[in-house]
Amino acid sequence: MKREAVEKLLTSHFRLRPLMRATDFYKLIYQGVFGVSHIITEGALGWLEKEAEDLNLQEHPEEPLLEEVSADGKMVRVNLRPYMRQGLPLGGLFAAMEETSRAEGSSEEFKEAWTVFKALAASGRLKVDVGEFEALDDELRREGCRPHHHSETYRDAYHPAYRVVTRKFLADILGPEERDLA
């Protein structure tokens, strides 16, 4: 994993969402490394359908369809509002999620990216609460990599509605040209 690519990923998300907290960076790194296997359970398709049905598609018109969440660009967020506005199939998205969940991320890769985050936070390039950051760092040392939710601040400010998939699994849905757009 290239340090510069991780820095670019983290700082670009921070520019778009300056209210990100340490836990939101943790979640971003986690999703970029491990994908969605932690949410692929019985009922996951129903939850996706319910969330999509409840969305106000007029909100957040500037939201892109895809956003990179990994330093190598292979893992992306598919934002549900633009996805639904384009009339794309939820079944296809869920199939991409299932395929993505079969890949195994590396704790070492996560820790490398987390180290880059720590350096950016220590330098002041990413503004995060020191106490929250240290608590996450302690948890990571004690318990290893675990999924986290977005902070309440993030949820209230940005109303996230997305699913994370490996970019290549979107080819059948978006076509090879559009799949490469992020």
Structure description:
With 182 residues, this protein is mostly helical. It has one domain (3-179). It is 56% helix and 7% strand. The chain contains ten helices and three strands, in the order αααββαααααβαα. The chain has helices at 3-16, 22-34, 44-54, 80-85, 90-101, 107-123, 130-143, 152-158, 171-174, 176-179, and strands at residues 66-68, 75-79, 162-166. It has a three-stranded antiparallel β-sheet. Helix 1 (3-16) crosses helix 6. It is globular, with a radius of gyration of 16 Å.
Terminal CA distance: 20 Å
Percent helix: 55-70%
- Most strands sheet: 3 strands, antiparallel
Shape: globular
Strand order of the largest sheet: 1-2-3
How many E-type strands? 3
Structural class by helix and strand composition: mainly alpha
Mean pLDDT score: 90
Unreliable runs, pLDDT <50, ≥5 residues?
none
Order of helices and strands: HHHEEHHHHHEHH
Strand content: 5-15%
Number of spatially distinct domains = 1
Overall radius of gyration: 16 Å
Number of helices: 10
Summarize the structure.
By secondary structure, the protein is mostly helical. It contains 10 helices and 3 strands; from the N terminus they run αααββαααααβαα.
